[in-house]
Structure formats: structure tokens, C-alpha cells
């Protein structure tokens, strides 16, 4: 599910507003921690947890050209 990073919390945690309208506290996966820098305003893919819907994992960060393509195609209406 797509979302926009609202704020950085530290300890590889971020607050993300998802396209379904839910604000989730997400953690950045260990695979992404050192390789991909996530900042406020970035568009990311979030996988919600099965147990707690208000939490999730960030699995991908989109680059600038990818975000503009998503906006043109209509995928980022509410994010």
C-alpha cells in the first residue's frame, strides 16, 4: 500500500499516512536501513501488520521520477 512519510521518529521508525486514510507507525526494514535513506515527504510502500493494523513495515522508497509517474497515472490521489 502506498503512503507518504509524515515524520521521522528515530530508531528506524517513521510515521506514514497511507492511501487508505490510516496513519501508521512503520519501521524501516533492516535490508533498507543503511542502503536507502528515507526522509519526510518520501512516497513509500507499506506492508501493514496482520496483528496491529496501525503498524507496518516500509519495504520500498520511490525516487522522484517514479513519484511523478505515479501522480500522472493517478495512483497518488489521497497520499
From TrEMBL:
Transmembrane segments: none annotated. Keywords: Initiation factor, Protein biosynthesis. Residues 1-63 form the S1-like domain. The keyword Lipid metabolism does not apply. GO terms for molecular function: RNA binding; translation initiation factor activity. InterPro entries: NA-bd_OB-fold, RNA-binding_domain_S1_IF1, TIF_eIF-1A, TIF_eIF-1A_CS. Seems to be required for maximal rate of protein biosynthesis. Enhances ribosome dissociation into subunits and stabilizes the binding of the initiator Met-tRNA(I) to 40 S ribosomal subunits. This is Translation initiation factor 1A.
Amino acid at each position: 500500500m502506498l503512503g507518504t512519510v509524515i515524520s521521522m521518529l528515530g530508531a528506524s521508525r517513521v510515521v506514514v499516512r497511507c492511501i487508505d486514510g490510516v496513519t501508521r507507525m512503520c519501521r524501516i526494514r533492516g535490508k533498507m536501513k543503511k542502503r536507502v535513506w528515507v526522509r519526510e515527504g518520501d512516497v513509500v510502500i507499506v506492508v501493514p501488520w496482520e496483528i496491529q493494523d496501525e503498524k507496518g513495515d516500509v519495504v520500498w522508497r520511490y525516487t522522484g521520477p517514479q513519484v511523478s509517474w505515479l501522480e500522472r497515472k493517478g495512483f497518488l490521489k489521497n497520499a
